[in-house]
TrEMBL record:
The keyword Ribonucleoprotein does not apply. It comes from Massarina eburnea CBS 473.64. Residues 147-279 form the SET domain. InterPro entries: H3K9_Histone-Lys_N-MTase (IPR050973), SET_dom (IPR001214), SET_dom_sf (IPR046341). Keywords: Chromosome, Metal-binding, Methyltransferase, S-adenosyl-L-methionine, Transferase, Zinc. One of its GO terms (cellular component) is chromosome. The keyword Transferase applies. It is found in: Chromosome. One of its GO terms (molecular function) is methyltransferase activity. PANTHER family: HISTONE-LYSINE N-METHYLTRANSFERASE SET-23, HISTONE-LYSINE N-METHYLTRANSFERASE SUV39H. This is SET domain-containing protein. GO terms for biological process: methylation. SMART domains: SET (SM00317).
Length: 307
C-alpha cells in the first residue's frame, strides 16, 4: 500500500526531474518546491521518517532513512513538528516543593506552564502581552524551517547534521525544538542529553519567590525535557559548536503556548552547517570537541598539534 510518505517522496522526485538542476530554480520553482516540502511536514499523516537529503533539501536516491545510535540504542527518528504529551510518562514524577502542592501535569499546556508575557512572543516578536495564536507562529516560522530542512551526513565524521539550503538572515526563527514532553532525568547519558532540551515545568513560579536577601536568583533548573530521540523536528539534528551560528531560546506563542525555538545568531550561507552551543557541561563531559573552531573549548590532539 502506498503511504503518504511514499506519495510525498514520489512527488519530490518528479519535481526534481522537472526542474533539472535545483541551483537554477526560479522564484516560481522555489515556491512550488516549498509547497511540496510543506506537504512533507503536514501534521496528522502519521509518522514520516527523516531522510538523508542533498544540499537542496531533496531526498537522496534511493531515499536513505536516517539511522542514529543514541545511548547504545538504534533509532529511526520520526518527523514531528509539534510537542506531544503522554500523561503515562509522568506517573512516577514528583513535583519539586518549589511549585507547591504536588500535582502531575495532565496536559501539554499544564506541562509547559502558562505563557509569561516577559518571554518573547515568537509570532510578533513582542515582549508585551499580545493575542497571537500558535497557528500564527507556525505561519511566521514556516519560512525559517523551509530554509534549514536538509539533513546530510558529515563526511569523515559520519554524524548527521542540519544544513542551510538557502540564505538565512540573522534573527530568523528556524524551527521549534519539538519532541515528547517527559520528566527531566539527570541520569541520561551525554549521548542522550544531546537530544534533550529542558524547560521549567508546571504553573509558572512567581518571580518574587526567586528573591533571596533582596537579590534576584536564577530560576531553578527545568523539570520538563523535550525529548527528541524518537520524534522531533528537523533541528534535533543540530550539532554542537563552540562558536555556533544559532541558539535555543524559550518563548511563547501569544497566550497559547510556551516553546523552545531556534534562532539564527548571524547570517547563515547556503550549505553552511547550522549549529548551537550544547553548553559548558556538555563540552566538559566530552574527551574532545569536533567543532574545529579556533576558539574551541575542547580541541582534539590533532588540532592542538596544528596550532
Ligand atoms: Zn504576539
Ligand atoms: Zn569546540
Amino acid at each position: 500500500m502506498k503511504t503518504h510518505q511514499d506519495e510525498v517522496l514520489a512527488t519530490l522526485r518528479t519535481f526534481r526531474r522537472m526542474i533539472g538542476i535545483p541551483g537554477n530554480m526560479t522564484e516560481d520553482d522555489k515556491r512550488m518546491f516549498h509547497e511540496y516540502l510543506e506537504r512533507l511536514y503536514e501534521p496528522g499523516h502519521g509518522p514520516i521518517f527523516f531522510y538523508v537529503q542533498d544540499k537542496y533539501g531533496f531526498p537522496r536516491h534511493p531515499p536513505t532513512r536516517v539511522t542514529t545510535t543514541i545511548g547504545a540504542k538504534t533509532w529511526n527518528p520520526e518527523l514531528m513538528t509539534e510537542n506531544t504529551f503522554d500523561a503515562d510518562r509522568w506517573v512516577n514524577w514528583t513535583q519539586p516543593d518549589f511549585y507547591g502542592a504536588n500535582k502531575r501535569p495532565q496536559s501539554l499546556k499544564e506541562c509547559l506552564g502558562d505563557p509569561n508575557p516577559l518571554e518573547q512572543c515568537v509570532a510578533c516578536r513582542s515582549l508585551e502581552a499580545c493575542t497571537c495564536t500558535y497557528k500564527e507562529y507556525k505561519r511566521t516560522a514556516r519560512n525559517g524551517w523551509l530554509k534549514c530542512t536538509n539533513i546530510q551526513r558529515i563526511p569523515d565524521i559520519g554524524f548527521f547534521g542540519l544544513f542551510a539550503h538557502d540564505f538565512i538572515t540573522q534573527g530568523t526563527i528556524l524551527d521549534e525544538y519539538s519532541g515528547e514532553l517527559v520528566p527531566h532525568d539527570d541520569t541520561v547519558s551525554d549521548d542522550e542529553s544531546s537530544y534533550w532540551s529542558s524547560l521549567p515545568c508546571g504553573p509558572r513560579p512567581n518571580p518574587a519567590n526567586h528573591v533571596v536577601d533582596g537579590e534576584q536568583v536564577p530560576r531553578p533548573h527545568g523539570h520538563v525535557a523535550i525529548d527528541s530521540r524518537v520524534r522531533g523536528s528537523a533541528v534535533r539534528f543540530m550539532n554542537h559548536s563552540c562558536v555556533p551560528n544559532a541558539a535555543l531560546f524559550e518563548g511563547r506563542a501569544g497566550t497559547e503556548r510556551r516553546l523552545v525555538f531556534v534562532e539564527a545568531l548571524r547570517d547563515i550561507w547556503p550549505e553552511e552547517e547550522i549549529t548551537i552551543d550544547y553548553g559548558l557541561d556538555w563540552t566538559e563531559s566530552m574527551d574532545e570537541c569536533l567543532c574545529g573552531e579556533v576558539e574551541c573549548r575542547k580541541p582534539g590532539k590533532d588540532s592542538m598539534e596544528l596550532s
